[in-house]
User: What shape does this take?
Amino acid sequence: MTDELSMEPLRAPTGTHDLMPGDSARWVALLGVFAALAEKSGFGLIHTPLFEDVRLFRRGVGTETEVVGKEMYEFTDRGGRAMALRPEGTASVVRAFIQHHPIPPFRAWYATPTFRYERPQAGRYRQHHQVGVEVLGIADADVDVEVLALANDYLQGLGLSGYTLRLNSLGDAACRPQYVASLREYLTANQGSLCEEHKGKISANPLRILDCKDERCRSVSVGAPTMSEALCEQCAEHFARVKAGLDAQNISYFLDAKLVRGLDYYTRTTFEVTLDLGEGELTILGGGRYDGLVEVLGGVPTPGIGFGSGIERVLLACDRQDVFAIQPTVPMVYIVDTTDGAHARDLVASLRKEGLIAERAYGNRSMKSQFKTADRSGARFALVIGDREAADGTITIRDLRGGGEQVVVARDALLTSLLELAAKN
Assistant: This one.
């Protein structure tokens, strides 16, 4: 069958992007910063499948959320099973915890792609990537502070500043139902002023209306009752301990009584980190406590807390603040071989084993052509092997970045000579 689009150029799907060498150097560096901080805090790397049984996200994230109701990629596999591409990181980690029974406390960090069908915009893609952490098995408010401190250290480690940590408590099963009832009553009284989408959703989950970005819902939300006014004694004490811990570590925060996040599993401590870019606020990190999620997904009651941070969004924020400008890796040496290329083949292999970044030319090109490529590569030194060097067992070192200084050295003295030249200049 003829492909109707066979003449159209193939491109990455809408809402996705290719990460090319050069740009990827920042990703490698960012992952290094995050991994070092996470592992220093006792977290180990976890890697879970990109797709899961769709029930995992319907139960865990919530069918009334936009993530599951509007944005999740669902499909039926060849065995007739209903599956979904992972829209967020936490549910999969919790499923793995339930399945494999690690001894709590369980601390895991991840770096993973996630998938949401939404309108592409700056820093937001249909396939985007997150780093995050999860702690399962500790109910103590002090671990909330540890997680928040890790998030703060991560952002500071990238050089970001001026961001706002927004903090709230969503209570628990003891006090939230009473609050939800009062919120539902308030929203029902103001139903005519809500956006069209949420006018009929007050009964299902009124908290979602507080998360709506439509200006009509935002205006109604201004006068809505807040969870902070309805916290039970235990939740109030937990939240007070979190705030005291942040104060003790000089981590500033803003109490946002309307912060509910977009997922159903959050309890007690809930947070977002936002950055004002002038044209609007960008959320670069978010998370919270989810003490009932393990039980909802079929495990024994186990407290949990974590956060996720979009890599593309964080790097966009870095660009706007002119920080974390990682330079792509360039070779230290570029081998110019005007014989048959065998000398370059063997020399590049030996130098790489010694830990140097080395490149070479291929295809018996002219010396002039090879030097042009060497200069474009950004290499510090060119190592020249011609007929004379091949006969004498020597190598000519030319400094490509220091005025063209050139020395001839014995082949067995090459590594020492390179290190001395690099240190001298």
User: Anything to note?
Assistant: The domain at 333-424 is CATH 3.40.50.800 (Rossmann fold).
